[in-house]
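Lab channel / #folding
Pinned by the channel admin:
"Please post every new chain as: sequence first, then the C-alpha cells as a reply. Keep commentary short and put observations after the output so the thread stays searchable."

First post following the new format, from NK:
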Amino acid sequence: MNRFNPLDWKRSRLVTALALIVVAAVVGAMIGYNHAWTIISAEHLDPADPYMPVIYEKFTAAGAVGLSAVAALTIYLFEIVRTRGP
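Reply from TO:
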C-alpha cells in the first residue's frame, strides 16, 4: 500500500513548491492592489481619506492569500496524483 506523506517531499520539490507559492502571493498582492486602485478611482474617493491605506492593505492581503492558497492547493493535489500514479 502506497501511503502519501506530505512531509516526505524531496528537498528540490519543496523548494520549487515554496517558490511557486511565494510567486503566487506576490502576483496576488499586485492584483489585489490594482483592484483596490480601480475601485478607488471608479468611486472618485478622496486620496486624503485616512482609510485609503486600509483599503489598499485589505485588497493586497486578500489577493496574496487567495492566489497563494490556490497555488498551494494545486501543488498539493498534483503531488497526491503524482505519488498515487503507476
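NK: The chain has a mean pLDDT of 84.
TO: also worth noting, Helices lie at 11-43, 52-84.
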